[in-house]
Amino acid sequence: MEVLLAIMIGVLYAAGIYLMLRRSLVKLIIGVILLGNGANLLIFLLGRITKGSPPIIPEESSTFLEAYTDPLPQALILTAIVISFGLQAFAIILVKRVFKVVKTNDIDEMNTTDAGS
Amino acid sequence: MLAAVLTGFLLSIFLVFAGKYFKGKLAVLSALVPLGLFLYFLSFINRVSSGEIITQSVEWVPALGLNLDFTLDGLSLLFTLLITGIGFLVFAYTAAYLKGHEYLDRFYGYLGMFMGAMLGLVLSDNLLSMFLFWELTSISSFFLIGFNNSSEASRKSAVLALAVTGSGGFLLLAGALLLGNVAGTYSISEMVALGDMIAQSESYILIVVLLFGAAFTKSAQFPFHFWLPGAMKAPTPVSTYLHSATMVKAGIYLLLRFTPVLGSTEFWNTTLIIVGGITMFYAAVHTLFRTDLKGVLAYSTISVLGLLVFLIGLGTQYALVAAGVYIVVHALYKATLFLITGIIDHETGTRDVTALSGLRKVMMPVAIAGLLAAISSAGIPPTVGFLGKELVYEATLGMADWAVVLTVLAIATNILVLYAGFVAGIKPFTGKLPEKFEKVHMPSYLMWLPPVILAVLGLLIGIYPAVIEAPLIKPLVDSVGLEGQAVHLKLWHGFNFVLGLSALTLAGGFLLYFLWKPSEKKENAISKLDFIAPKSLLLGFSAGFRSFSSMWTNFLQNGLLRNYVTTIVLFLVVLVGYSLFSGENAFHINTESLSEMTFYEVVIMGVMFMAVAFVVVARSRLGAVVGMGIVGYAICLLFVIYSAPDLAMTQFSIDTLTVILFVLVLSGLPKYIAKSNLITRIRDAGVSIGLGVLVSLIALAVINEPVNKEVSDFYAENAYILAKGKNVVNVILVDFRGTDTLMEIAVLTIAALGVYSLLKLRLDKDENIEKEN
Amino acid sequence: MTLDNFLYYIILPVLALSTLLVFIRFIIGPTISDRIVALDLLITTGIGVIAVYSILSGQPTFLDIGLIFGLIGFLGTVAYSSYLEKRKKK
Amino acid sequence: MMDIIIVVLASFGAFFILLGAVGILRMPDTYLRMAVTTKAATLGVGLILIAAAFYFDDVATTTRVLAIIIFILLTAPVGAHLMGRASYIAGNKLWEKSVSDDLEGKYKASRNFSIAPEKPGKSEDIIENEDYDKN
Amino acid sequence: MMQQLVMYPLLFQLFLSIGLIFLWKKISWQKWISAVGSVINLGISVWLFIHIWENGTQGIQAGNWEAPFGITFVADALSASLVLLTSIAGLAVSVFSAGSLMSARLKFGFYPVFHFLLLGLCGAFLTGDIFNLYVWFEIIIICSFVLLTLGGEKAQLEGAMKYFTLNFLASVVFLTAIAVLYGLTGSLNMADLAVKVAEIENRSLVQVNALLFLVGFGIKAAVFPLFFWLPASYHTPPSAVSAIFGGLLTKVGVYALIRVFTLIFEVDPFIQNVILGIAFLTLFSGAVGALVQNNVMKVFSYLVISHIGYMIAGLGMMTEVALTGAIFYLFHDIVVKTNLFMVSGIIHRVKGTSDMKKLGGFYGKYPLLSLLFAIPLFSLVGIPPLSGFWPKLSLISAGFDLENYWIIAGILLASFLTLIVIVKLWAAVFWKTGEKLPEQRNFPYFDNLKNFQKTQLIAPIVFLSFVTLYIGFGAENIHSLSVRISEELLNKQMYIDAVFNKS
Amino acid sequence: MKNRFLANLLLTIIWIAVTGNFQTANVVFGFILSFFLLWVITRGSGQGRYFKMVPKVISFFFFFLFELIKANLQVAYEVATPKLNMKPGIVALPLDVKSDFGITLLANLITLTPGTLSLDVSEDRKFLFVHSMYIYDKQDFINGIKNGFEKRIIDISE
Amino acid sequence: MKTLILRTASNYMLPLLLVFSVFILLRGHYLPGGGFVGGLIAAIAFVLHAFANGLENTKGLLRIRPGVLMPIGLGLAFLSGLAPVLAVDEPFMTGLWWPDHVPVVGNLGSALFFDIGVYLVVIGVTLTIIFSISESD
Ligand code: NA
Ligand code: NA
User: Fold this and answer.
1) Which of B332, B344, E283, G132 has the fewest CB neighbours in a 10 Å radius?
2) What region, left, alpha or beta, does residue G54 occupy, with left being phi > 0 and alpha being psi -120 to 50 degrees?
């Protein structure tokens, strides 16, 4: 199963980068989001995955009686998801403003700030 | 000695703040500083000539080996006296020359800084501190050359001069560090004892090349000489002081200083002879084609610098004595000629040799000084110049193999130098006074007295060479590592072959002076060869480099975001991919250790894969957003299946929020475009897939590695017992790793503030808002 | 056949099949509304999957996710429909 | 006994979900797809959830299940209404065999409807032409 | 308890930032609080620095969970010094902003975000946890986005798009690297990782992981060929923002590289070659980039890149001498680059342009200011004995020790090109008479400012120039500090002990 | 009315939360307690109708359940059989129910019943536009709803 | 959107969702949930209300500007971390626990206040973002 997930992660990375390489602002943002998802899943996978055993201590017990999933990657991903959301929200608004101000959707046309000398 | 060095700097700092009060009549008082220093150094003359070496050591940055270790020996004493002595006259001269100039205070400030740097340079026993002062001379020279900063030519010359001498400075730095590395010390006096060891080390050649680079650029040796004529854009006192008498001799000083350390090899000598020889002859020929007095003097200075390098290259006692004498001689007569040129320029408004004549009628004392200096430069007895020339011929003749060639070269050079001296020192004063110059009058005594003093001094030393022999020249030769006593300076050597050569030189020189008339036509004629001149080549190279830089920069920073992303991803894929595939224990994937695959997982993955594909190829942006929703939702299901309920909840909420954001702004967003052509898309797909494959492979390789769950086991065991929570993920978030979470909500807050500001603050909408930047 | 096996071999495959069918509708569209409706149905189906999965793994906790799904999925629908209207209004 | 209840509930639940899935695939227009899916899936999910409640057989789970069902019952029809309305406004056409359209022209003509599209019902709108590539 | 001191800079900055949000739109309050707060923060940083200098590396466990289970904060000499420098630069920019930014920007959250940025920087320097480092990086990124776009002018927005995309990419690479690291070790505590990574058998994967970090941090540090975001964006915001960016942002990347490659990973020959190659090309590309620019801010932007090369070169050589040079350069560069961007702000104020072709006449009109500006400019070049000179001694020496002549050539070439760039800039901006430009409406020309505002602009430059002069003339102290830091870096046991001993 | 019910529910949830006890007894007790409390505090304020309504609501619930299952089977037949026999269309349904709550409830119940879908309420609240799969006779269809759902809703809500 | 159905439904859902969000917040320490998801649900409740009733109505309902919740929440989270530093000289974020078991939330400790801080920040952030976008058109 891990193999499939690993491939899926690769697909997310690839799709994310591919969309970031397009010339449309909206595609760029979508690519960014896919890429972020890929990274989160990678943490998830590499923290090792287990089925059906959430890291929640049973009601009557003060510690785990059975196998449990590593909770740490989950906490990390939560943090990463939320942070990425903050950045992406900002970026989406940025795209909106860029489009309004620069008046183009074509990223290739946004080359005035660093062209040559 | 530290105090002496600092005096110059203090003067310039003082002038920064009190300059405006010192601009007027008080300016001349600043000449007291070099005068005082001159007298101070003069007071050492007995001790030094008796073989004593005076040292002073002040720790500065001992950890880096840079200390202010000052040593006063014969070599440095001679230089300090030149620096302060000529400095004194130049300071005084300037008071009149730039009288009433708006920025006179700055000028003195730079001069003071330069003097301090130069003194530091010649007094340093520590190689690094020597480099430090070396750089400071370059910088002060930069400011002085560019003093007339409204003139573009001035600015360009200043930059060019600094470019050349600065590059030499970096070579010196490298050389110094390498030498220090090899010798284990930065103390030059300690290195003398290690000379053999250094000469045998692997790095010897490199060290010498680096030091030569520094010396040749600073002392304007071919092919780095071209900055010096340009530097003549500076006011004449600067040309006098820096670009003939002192700073350009720093390279010579460096070579002399390191002769006892590095000068024992053939490489050293041969290189110096060749470079010096070419320089002296090449520059001397150039004097023939100059009509600007300063141009003539600049090339003749280069020629003499070449001669000095040549002499150091010869390396014999005679040669070094000759070098010592020539340093003095040249300083005296060349300073005189420059100062005279300054006077002429100042009073007549021109420096054109072809236009000047008969000025003796209006400025006799200056004419006399000119005559004396010309005679000295010509080496006519009884001037010290004669003495110097004699020694040169003695030296060249002493070289067994190359005697003839070198002597001929020396004679030819001397003939041309004689010519140059006459053109500058005699020609303007002889002949008929043109009408336009009839109203020209004598300048202030502050201006004419210094050249007269120098010229007379030259004459006196020639007549009584003993004045400099024991006190200056011998200690100098001693400190270069040879027995200074062996050579005895005297004006008259009797009738011998050398005298004959001198006579030949004089005859040739006179002939040339009377037959060859400088003219603009000739100047233009030679300028046709400029395209192969080192300066043109360098400027050409620099223009080429600039266009290359432009190309390189525009190639990298081409403004296309997707090229940036491509570059970065490719770099990552190639680098990491190479490492992954070249590693010894290349990854092996053992699927047995992995969990079993179930159909529902396959379905979820399949849906997710299709959804990703849909997002990628979607032709409508809303479609893509909805597709993204499916991807996120499939991820949620994966999180559920793999036991991460908190993650599933959060992921789903965030995805929905993202969708809402998109939906809210989508109407303001641009339509989808697909402007890339097929080839671009294939290329992009290649890059992307490369990254995807790489990440997948890394992931597979990592999950085959053994796991260490020490940390998460601690969380699991203690979440309830110590942190009183049963949802371990939440306990990690608010307790074990609460700091992360605190910062995470800070990120959210900042993002929200940013969004608010981005939407509400629109500077370009309101033209009336003051723009700050 | 145990309950677990029944759920695993009968119910889950049916739900998986449903998911695929709905997904096909998502892919073929043809209008954006169809896609959104499909997404909505996928989420609803997902709640079913989660419920079955929570039985299979004996973790009632997972049911809470179903709650969140139902709640928030609705908001997504609201947003989409609002967009569709807004866009038309222009 | 409990197992049988669970099996029955789950089976019906799965069946209704499948029904919705087939429905959404088969139905000829957006409105019909919506009509089929909202209820079938709601019912199906509700049944499966109830099965889960029986399985765990404690109040905590039962409350949760009820809460979910209430939420779904509350949100599903509202969502369907919104999507249906939006589809209509967006100009999605009815199946050609439809017998009645009392809403026709309402969004355009009546100012009672605040959302009055300027150019409604153009056929290309169905496929969101404004978003599409030019080339 | 003195151990708490390690976190005081963070706690205080966070307190300040939150407090400033409460004062939203009360800009005169914000100005004063920011300035006074920055002074207090400087005091705390000095206190921390002295404490660390006297007592050695200190660690504190946030949440009181013993390492490696909680998040550890560690102050060693490097961290404490960088926190101190951040506080110095922060104080300068805080005052400079008060004078230079228009009130519209200040009303929309400049100060809170600015202090969050400082918080992020200090947090990144102090944390001893690799994931926590990621979080601090994100704080820095989001703050820089906001500051970069504040005002929403066209150039700002265009630059911000590139800045966002590439920095997000960097975060993803960083996160990928963390994932691999966690997958291999199960730990996040850097001291713990130092031990655990060394025990991993599959060195090939360790190298892969190290390279991922190299690329992720390399983008942040703006090295070749990953620097594109920098020239695209640094010149677009107001100079106060560029100042804190130019001074500190890339340096965090450098810091992170130094940290992970001394503590967690080793620089094996392959990685060494990669790093040195990157260093050479960074030095070169930045310098030639600066050479062809005509905009003062762009010139400085490229110089930021070029000079990162020195530090990367020091890191790549990985000897004590080399690291000493890299650390020294880091300190020098923070102060000087911050100062230079403020200088460029004043230059812009004088004539309303940053175009070197149009600028001029500075030297005639403002001789004392010119002299003041000469200090950072020539320190940057490394004219001895100014601050930029000293670290090059160590770096070149280290190059000779390793007989790596390429890197020496790179260092010398970059130094030379910097010299040319700066003297040309000097000639163009200060010497040349310059064009007479049409007067812009509503532009607050420098001459028209009130004296108080002029003081707000100039005082920070004077302050930083003094610091620069101290670094130059007091090089002995800075050098011995750098030596101590590089010793500490090369002897990771000290760090590990500080984290695990519950002293 | 609706507020009463919500308040009751709310108080129950709060009770459960406060006690931290999900056991059936506790939930039931919480519901009864809050019901009683509400009754006490609203006695005599004319809102007592709610408490007579409870049985009506329960019977309505079962009516709806029945309709739901019935309609589902109808749709199941439609979907599962190869031919499409429907006569779909949009019908304007005149409304008697007046309150927001009533209209919404009616619309939602119509939607929840398979085969029909409430599209919109006219701005003047006089018509509910319903999309249905089977419109053999428009008036029959309208009457069916009016006599079924609408009547019961008016009963309990107004 | 002017739809009666949505408006009515959202009016019922608002209190329900708010109660639910508090519920999710409080139980986070024991079961899935917590300040983040809780805050999102609360925010979503208001967003839903805004979709149905218009932004002005929702703002009127809220009475305070949602932006204020951000520094308040952040400050609360910060203070709950700072409390051990100020009170007992323990490191930042050290958990402080009320000695007795408290009803509703179980163990009462600084972690709960921290989570409440998260909750408030999330509400503030989400609403600030969404409201500013809606206003900007
Ligand atoms: Na975390
Ligand atoms: Na229906």
Assistant:
1) G132
2) left
Question: Cα(B633)–Cα(B641) distance, rounded to whole angstroms?
Answer: 13
pLDDT at B348: 81
CA distance A108 to A24: 9
Identify which has the larger pLDDT, F6 or B732: B732
Pairing mode of beta strands F89-94, D100-101 = parallel
Tell me the pLDDT band of D130, cut-offs 50, 70 and 90: very low
Using 50, 70 and 90 to split pLDDT, how confident is the model at A90? very high
Count of H-run helices and E-run strands, chain C: 4, 0
Give the ligand with the smallest distance to the CA of D38. 2
| Same-domain status, B389 and B462 | yes
Enumerate the residues of chain G whose CB falls inside 8 A of the CB of residue A86: 125
- Residues of chain B above pLDDT 90, percent: 24
Residues in E closer than 8 angstroms to A46, CB to CB, are 179-180, 182-183
> How many domains does chain B fold into?
4
**Phi, psi dihedral angles at B60 (to 5 degrees):** -125, -70
C78: chain D residues, CB-CB within 8 Å: 79, 82
Instruction: Report the amino acid identity of residue B710.
Output: E
- Report the number of secondary-structure helices (H) and strands (E) in chain D: 4, 1
Pairing of strands E71-75, F89-94: unpaired
Whether the link from the prior residue into G15 is cis, omega within 30° of 0, is no
The answer to whether residue G79 neighbours chain C at the CB level (below 8 Å) is no
pLDDT band for position E239 (cuts 50, 70, 90): very high
- B622·D130 Cβ contact <8 A: no
pLDDT digits (tens, 9 = 90+) for B10-62: 888 888 777 777 777 777 788 888 899 999 998 988 888 888 888 898 888 88
pLDDT, one tens digit per residue, over B477-524 is 888 877 655 566 665 666 677 778 888 888 888 888 887 777 777 777
Full residue range of the structural domain in which residue B337 is found: 295-518
Q: Where are the domains of chain G?
A: 4-136
CATH of span A2-53+68-110: 1.10.287.3510
For residues C52 and B240, which has the higher predicted lDDT (pLDDT)? C52
ipTM of this predicted complex?
0.92
Please write the tens of the pLDDT for every residue from C9-56.
999 999 999 999 999 999 987 888 899 899 889 999 999 999 999 998
pLDDT in the model for residue E436: 81
Using CB atoms, list chains with 3+ pairs below 8 Å to chain D.
B, C, F, G
Burial of D92 (0-12, 13-18, 19+ CB in 10 A): buried
Contacts of D74 in chain G (CB under 8 A): 9, 12-13
Is the Cβ of G100 closer than 8 Å to some Cβ of chain D?
no
Q: Indicate if the pLDDT at residue E449 is higher than 60.
A: yes
- Burial per residue of B489-498, b for 16 or more beta-carbon CB atoms within 10 angstroms, e otherwise: beeeeeeeeb
- Selected residue of B607, B619, B649 to mutate for chain D interface (largest D Cβ count, 10 A): B619
Higher model confidence: residue B727 or residue A60?
B727
Clarify whether residues B386 and B427 are in a common domain.
Answer: yes
Q: How deeply is B510 buried, as exposed, middle or buried, from its count of CB atoms within 10 A (0-12, 13-18, 19+)?
A: middle
Whats the size of chain C, residue-wise? 90
- Contact status, residue B730 vs residue B740, Cβ threshold 8 Å: no
**Is the C-alpha dihedral spanning B217, B223, B229, B233 positive or negative?**
negative
Give the mean model confidence (pLDDT) for residues A24-31: 90
User: Separation of A79 CA from ligand 1 center, angstroms?
Assistant: 5
**Alpha carbons D114 and C54: distance in angstroms, whole number:** 46
E168 contacts chain A (CB < 8 A):
yes
> To 5 degrees, how large is the angle CA E43–CA E49–CA E53?
145
